[in-house]
Amino acid sequence: MSFIVKGFDASAVAAGIKKSGAPDLALVASRVPCRAAAVFTRNLFPAAPVIFDRQLLAFNPDSIYAVLINAGCANACTGAEGTANARQSSEQASLHLGAHEHSVLVMSTGVIGVQLPMEKLLAAIPKVVETLTPEGWTAAANAILTTDTRPKLATRTVTLGDARGVITGIAKGAGMIHPNMATMLSVIATDAFITQPLLQQALAEANELSFNRISVDGDTSTNDTVIVLANALADNEEIVEASSADYIAFVAALTDLCTELAQAVVRDGEGVTRFVTVHVRGAVSDAEAHQAANTVATSPLVKTACFGGDANWGRILAAVGRAGIQVEPERCDLFIDGGPDAATRRGELQLVAGGVPLPYSEMAATEIFAQPEIDVRVELALGEGAATVWTSDLSYEYVRINGDYRT
């Protein structure tokens, strides 16, 4: 599969930040200036790159050339020195790209509370610039991994009038995954021609239905960032109206790409053995449905039941009941299904009707919960509100990984 986007290059090198010596510095760059949009963590201890990028985009959202990403050090909770290091990294990358000094956004991932090894990082910047290539997406996706076990890449094409646009993205994330937005880093590049305000609106819409709908462990990171760069080289007529067919098509393609990347983060979550989809339907609003689905998705009791293959459905309803939304138990129905595709699904099984358990087969329920993919559907019968959240089980391996993360 080709991930090439017209006018964009990517690369990766080993800067020596990771103890393993693996590649740990990635660069995604455009040969022409881009309009940029981003969404960031809502954690009130934002990392230095988040602080820097917010300031840079407030000052210059219309002439960004690149995103520089390091793995192995989060540059979070590092004070004024950390912010200065983020700025210096950006300025040096801009210099070596031959771009103006306010043109490179930065991302970091790794251990919190450690300063970036700037001597190593600055020495590697010329190398990562020199190795830029249109085919460098896979290398860049591998370089930004931490506890991830595999790279996450996706691409889409979209018809924009008489032109064909391309959207390609990479992401990383395996632990400390939870909305607002969701704990991860992602860089997305497109050759579409779109105004910067509409690019920001499109990302916000796509993010709400993708990266904001996943959870691995309920912890929101200090570094969460999704950035989209658009360089206008697709030669489509500029997208200037949110009501236009081109905007609607662009948002649909961007949402689809972001959903694939978001689900890939959950599937590669730390210690994950089950991929769980939680649907809540019939809530009084979409917001309440999302709140309920998110509560189920982050419940340690639900997640451990999934890991153990135990169809302990009472934990699901208990989570809905404490979600802080409107619920009438006598209206509630609960269904489960399992299997990664139609060929392996056991068939949907209803466990509860009107808040009361049905005489279902315990063996059938256990078989569903033993599948690598589990669907849970809660029907509240109170309104039209609906939401879907993707989550995972909670395993011994998750505890092991995070028990010795720094050692």
Give the uncertain stretches in residue-range form.
none
Shape: globular
User: What distance separates the N and C termini?
Assistant: 37 Å
Task: Count every helix, treating DSSP H or I runs of 4 or more residues as helices.
Answer: 11
CATH architecture label name of the largest domain: 4-Layer Sandwich
H and E string: EEHEHEHHEEEHEHEHHHEEEHEEH
Mean pLDDT: 92
Radius of gyration: 22 Å
- The assembly state of the depicted protein chains is single chain
Structural class: alpha+beta
Pick out its properties:
407 residues, alpha+beta, L-amino peptidase D-ALA esterase/amidase, Ubiquitin-like (UB roll), 2 domains, eight-stranded mixed β-sheet, 33% helix, 27% strand
Architecture overview:
With 407 residues, this protein is an alpha+beta fold. It has two domains: 8-267, 4-Layer Sandwich (L-amino peptidase D-ALA esterase/amidase), CATH 3.60.70.12; 275-403, Roll (Ubiquitin-like (UB roll)), CATH 3.10.20.340. The chain is 33% helix and 27% strand. It has eleven helices and 14 strands. Strands 1, 2, 3, 4, 5, 6, 7 and 8 form an eight-stranded mixed β-sheet that branches. It has a six-stranded mixed β-sheet with strand order 12-11-10-13-9-14. A hairpin with a 2-residue loop joins strand 5 and strand 6 (163-172). The protein is globular. The mean pLDDT is 92.
